[in-house]
Amino acid sequence: MKQLTGPLSGVRILDLSTMIAAPFGATLLGDFGAEVIKVEMPGSGDSLRGMGPFKGEEPLRWPGLARNKKSLTLDLRSEEGKEILKKLVAKSDVVIENFRTGTLEKWGIGYDVLKEINKDIIMMRVTGYGQTGPNSHKAGFGTPATAYSGFTYLHGYTDRPPISPSFSLLDYITGVYVAFGVAAALYHRGTEEGQGQMIDIGLYESVFRMMEFLVTDYDQNGKIKERSPGLSGHSAPAGTFQTKDKHWVVLVTSSDSTFNRLAKAMNREDMLEDERFYTNSVRLEHFELTNGIVADWIKQFTRDELQDLLDEYGVPVSPINSIKDIFEDEHYKSRENIIEMDHPRLGKVKVPGIVPKFSETPGRIQRGAPDLGEHNEDILTGLLDYSEEEIQQLKENKVL
Fold first, then answer.
1. What is the DSSP letter of 354?
2. For residues 112 and 279, what is the distance between their CA atoms, to the nearest angstrom?
3. End-to-end alpha-carbon separation of the chain, Å?
4. Is the pLDDT of residue 1 over 50?
5. Is the same domain home to 68 and 202?
6. Which structural domain, as residue segments, surrounds residue 300?
7. Per the database entry, which stretches of residues form a coiled coil (predicted)?
8. I want to staple 175 with a disulfide (CB 3.0 to 4.6 A). Which of 25, 307, 323, 391 is the partner?
């Protein structure tokens, strides 16, 4: 039987990045077969190794975010470290980095230098604000970049300060763009006119791209959308509702046909003839009234009763799941959204599964998240033909 190794089998990626956004993109590529060599600073490694949550001394983000990677320690500030990197670039397809703008150029290993070594190299560059523009020199992290994007402005209650997402949402969204950008560049490089190139994204740009409704509404109507605790201005009814047994659910009717089905489920078909409710545009003018009617109706049912009824009528509703709910959910289990992998000290550890699902070349976990420098000898001897004596000298010089 043919061994399936993923659609990116044969692609070699040098992941020079740290923390979440760019490394997550590299992990996604690794999930689908790319060989990912994670280059880390000797002694300390990726700063994500020191980020919570923890179990004892073990960072619990690390297994899921660094799986399918090899770890090579390399001080890129040293001349010997730069030479090793250049040798690796000559044998690689992609470099992913998220140093502050100009850092690699200062060290003499910027894109212009690396493409002289390998004209087909693809370099993915992730910074807070991009490689160009008046803010390009600034340090960038996910939460400030989320605020800069306009996303934070929309969230919270009007009588309280805006709120940031409770996890690194923008970083993970950017990671998806990283994987998408690299895959698109690899495809282009494989065409008749293809070549290597540099890809540039600022953290804030990834979520800003998803808010076209803000851009065109302000351009055409001059409207500044203010924050709200849930969906508003798009459809009605929409929001968070509580069931009879005190569970929270989300219900949204994003089209008139969906509301028509909800009205039938509620036995309120009279609303379909009422000038306050018969189209989404008029329901938005009576948003609080519409939501109030739905909220009172939902309180008559338990969570499971409501789910069964609205599923029957084809109305989108979902419980607001905790992670405990997710672990117990049969759909998550059937989709393999949570999978188990080996860990050198924890034994077994559960991590998110691989998405999307390919019918012919599915992704898989080929190796667990590496310990710092775990693959130094394998990479240097197997790929670059360094001798044991040379490796020992690099260690003594603190290059590795």
1. -
2. 57
3. 40
4. no
5. yes
6. 238-242+248-319
7. none
8. 25
Residues 52 and 174 reside in one and the same domain: yes
What is the torsional sign of CA 63, 67, 72, 77?
A: negative
Same domain for 72 and 202? yes
Percent of all residues in the chain with a pLDDT value above 70, rounded to a whole number: 98
The answer to whether 231 touches 238, Cβ cutoff 8 Å, is yes
Within this chain, do residues 291 and 384 fall inside the same structural domain, yes or no? no
Does the pLDDT at position 101 exceed 90? Answer: yes
From the candidates 15, 31, 93, 171, give the one annotated as an active-site residue.
171
Q: Is 56 helix (H, G, I), strand (E, B) or coil?
A: coil
What is the distance between the alpha carbons of residues 149 and 170, in angstroms, rounded to a whole number? 10
Q: ∠ at Cα 33 (61, 199), nearest 5°?
A: 80
Q: What is the dihedral of CA 302, 307, 308, 311, to 10 degrees?
A: 160
Residue 110 located in a structural domain: yes
Q: Are residues 299 and 357 in the same domain?
A: no
pLDDT in the model for residue 2: 44
Query: Domain for residue 64, yes or no?
Result: yes
Is the predicted pLDDT of residue 333 greater than 60, yes or no? yes
pTM: 0.93
How far, in Å, CA of 139 to CA of 366, rounded? 34
Give me the residue label for tokens 């993109």. 25
Which pair of structure tokens corresponds to residue 52?
């919570």
Query: Could you give the CA distance from residue 308 to residue 314 in angstroms, rounded to a whole number?
Result: 10
* CA distance linking residue 66 with residue 371, whole number of Å: 10
Domain count, the chain: 2
Q: Which two tokens stand for residue 78?
A: 């040293």
Is 328 inside a domain boundary? Answer: no
